[in-house]
Design goal:
Number of helices: 1
Low-confidence stretches: none
Largest sheet: 6 strands, antiparallel
Order of helices and strands: EEEEEEH
Helix content: 10-25%
Structural class: alpha+beta
Radius of gyration: 14 Å
Number of strands: 6
Length: 103
């Protein structure tokens, strides 16, 4: 059994995140994944509309998240190098799988 479980959202999975000025920005959920060994869940997002051009690189954002039953979604910044390395590894795996599907 794998330590990671990647969940691909539907086409309509979007989230609004306010910035430090209170301006709201729309993001598309690229994928979420759970880490069995830590029990943490992570979400990888891209600004809405950024994947329309296949030519340019997409800026992505990753967060640890919690979504208690009946509660609101809470996003937390990733703070440790260990977490960032794990997210980067899964993002690279996701990108490779996406390229294979296109070919």
């Amino acid at each position: 059994m794998s330590e990671f479980q990647i969940n691909q959202p539907g086409d309509d999975d979007r989230i609004v995140i306010p910035d430090e000025n209170g301006d709201e920005h729309l993001f598309q959920v690229l994928f979420t994944f759970d880490v069995d060994s830590t029990g943490n869940s992570y979400m990888v997002l891209a600004p809405e509309g950024s994947n329309e051009s296949e030519e340019e690189e997409i800026e992505v954002h990753a967060f640890r998240y919690e979504e208690p039953e009946g509660g609101d979604l809470s996003l937390y910044p990733i703070e440790t190098d260990e977490e960032w390395n794990m997210v980067e590894e899964l993002l690279n795996t996701f990108a490779e799988e996406d390229l294979e599907e296109e070919n």
